[in-house]
Amino acid sequence: MDSFRTEEEQVEAIRRWWDENGRSTLVTIVLVLVAVFGWQGWQRYSDERTATASDVYQRMLEAASAAGQGTQATTELERLAGVLRSDFGGTVYARFAALHLASAAVAEDDLETAETELRWVLGKASTGSEIAAVAQLRLARVLAAAGETGQALGLLEEGGNGDYRAAYLLARGDVLAAAERNEEALEAYREAEAVVQAYPAQLNVETLQAKLQSLASPAPASSKGES
Amino acid sequence: MRFFIDIDWIKPMLQDIRKSTRGTTAKVIIGVIVLSFALFGIESILVGGNSNSVAEVNGEPVTPIELQQVVDTQRRQIISMMGENLDPAMLDEQRLNSAALESIINRKLLMQAATRLGLTVSERELGVMISGMEQFQVDGRFAPDMYKGLLASAGYTPGTFKRALKDDLILSQLQAGLSGSDFATPAELALNARILAEQRDIRYLTIPLARFRDDAVVDESAIEAFYADNQSMFMTPESVELNYVELSLDDFREPVAEAAIEEEYRIEAQSYQYQDENRVSHILLEQRSGESDEALAERVARVQAELAAGRDFAEVAAELSDDIGSAGSGGDLGFTAGDAFPDEMEEAIAALEVDAVSAPVKTEAGIHILKVTERREAGAPSLAQLRPELEQRVQERQAKLALLSTVEKLRDLAFTADSLARPAEELGLEIKRSEPLLRDQPTGPLSNPQVLRAAFSEDVLERGHNSEVLELPDNRFVAVHLHRYNPAAVQELEAVREDIAAAIIEQRAREELAAAAEQAMEAIGSGEGVEALATRLGYEWQVELGARRDSRMVPRAVLQRAFALAAPATEPVVDYVVEPGGDARVVQLLRVTPGDLARLSREEQRGLAQRISEEYGAIVQVEHQQGLLADADITVF
Predict the structure, then answer these.
(1) Are A17 and A70 in the same domain?
(2) Which keywords label this protein (chain B) (predicted)?
(3) Range of the domain at A88
């Protein structure tokens, strides 16, 4: 870059530059600052909201663990879950709360409410997420309990190839067995057991095994074997 | 923290920017740089390579310290769980390491999933949680000293403990939300009740194996034939006999010089645990925005004047201190052992008499006026008291040094020599001879997986080299050399004659037992009652009405067989099963009654609902973890 001959020229050059670019430079700086502080402010705000939601959820879990003992705790659970659902709808805690509400509704034989809650979760959770997969599985089970076997099987078919294969297969077996389609149920249970066995973690699947044994084509009465 | 700015790439970029200050591109670049600094800090654009991690989970490093902590915890758990039955193989470092790494990876994956979902736990909640933990309470109140002490003894600082607790809570939220919210629908309850609460009426009789063992006679030709047909049953396993030299810490213990003990004492006496602890109160004056230095000094002077006039420190703190946190409790800050506060404060505290008030002390927070309210003198024990401990410590340290340098020499010697004779001679070691060792030798001084692996390795077994110097637990080192290899061989007939006779008797008894069970089945099938048959042949028999799958009254094998049988159409069904112990049970299934939800008690219904929802929940949890693992990018270094 050329060196300036006099100080005046230097000042003049700076002034010229400022006249040409001053406005846009200022605007850029202001915009950047607004963006930064706005973003940070929003971040802080939403962190604080999530933290509050987390506190409420923690209280809700306490109520849930006491819910076995009386209706008062159930009411408290439903109240807190309701707060999460309505006031913190954008957070993951609202989705968890809805799953708990569905569970509480099923326990009270209120399948309609359970369905509504699960559909709400499905609408909120991004497809393919763990929460969506779990909600879809449970929705299928609730629909089956309400007599919508076809719809239930459809949902299970659709989501059954993801990460939750064993759970979906177990549900499929339960739906089919309840509809007395024993052959198909047996096949689903068998597959479910095979999937579970392949996992490194030890899983206790007593009811699955009992159902398998009960549906398995029984040994002919004359067979002799050693255990 | 250190930053490494790579000037070579920054410089041309800055020159470009200078050349085109007028261009909009430059402004955009500057904007982006400013923005990224403001949002993510300077670290964001500086690549900080972390080369000493043991693994990476989706880019997140696992540090050696982290791994070691988990290994230590698991080792402690195993030791306290197994007590004296401890199998040293369970403490094998490699095994522990891989188990620990696996659990760290799983936890990191779950934490990453939780973070992705936006789960968090607030500082409030953590505070409430910690102060509510009974372990940290004295007389029902949270005791900060107790808290710090317990944490320290478990290897935590308050910071790392909070972090770990926070992670635990987040993971439990994740688990509660995903699998704890599971349920059992009415349809599932009915279905499972039908199967799990199914009842079967059965009779069964027991034919003891022992009955057929007694009267069996074995002739010589049968024994020889059995011996010829089953050679593989009578092999003695291969073994090796080793020469070995051994170094252990105890060989290197020497008397310790007095000067070394005194030096050790001098260091020990200065250590943290013997420092005095002071309980401190303060009055803090912060410079408020717009407040001049003079005004602040005036406030300081006012506090000093109030105190000089004899007013209670706590009262003045409540009235004038800017530290809202402590003003309410008379300015109390709790105990410090010299490391809780900034150095300026600690120096002033150390110089203060108990109940005396300090001159103003300036720190980053503002100006403090301090008072020591309590002093716990915790002077170091005397040299005489600590001597045994220190002497042992120094001795062990010196012995270890000597041991390790000898181990180094042994390494070189053992590597270059073709037997142990020269290394043993040069180092003055005795060559010992082992008993015959199996590949999985369970006892003896060399029953260590590493040693056995080396003993059966190509190098030692086939080439006849010295093994490497192997490190065993408890500061032992050995090097081994093959003395003799005993291949697997068939035992002489004489040595196994009796075993064979017993095996033949057992085999025949089982055949006869099966025949007897068949006959019993036939007799029952053609109409003879179980009771009549049992009485006729002298067997024991039982009846069980309404047996369930989980019934404890009926032997396991009988129950399993009874529930595997097809439901009887008209006539009862008969089958038999041989117990693991050898006795046969002939089972007659009379009737099957499907379970009925409505006939279960409230209690049983609740239990059933819980079993179903827990089973679904557990599967969901495992499959969640499994799915995270499948999608993860994991590198183990």
Answers:
(1) no
(2) Cell inner membrane, Cell membrane, Chaperone, Isomerase, Membrane, Rotamase, Transmembrane, Transmembrane helix
(3) 52-124
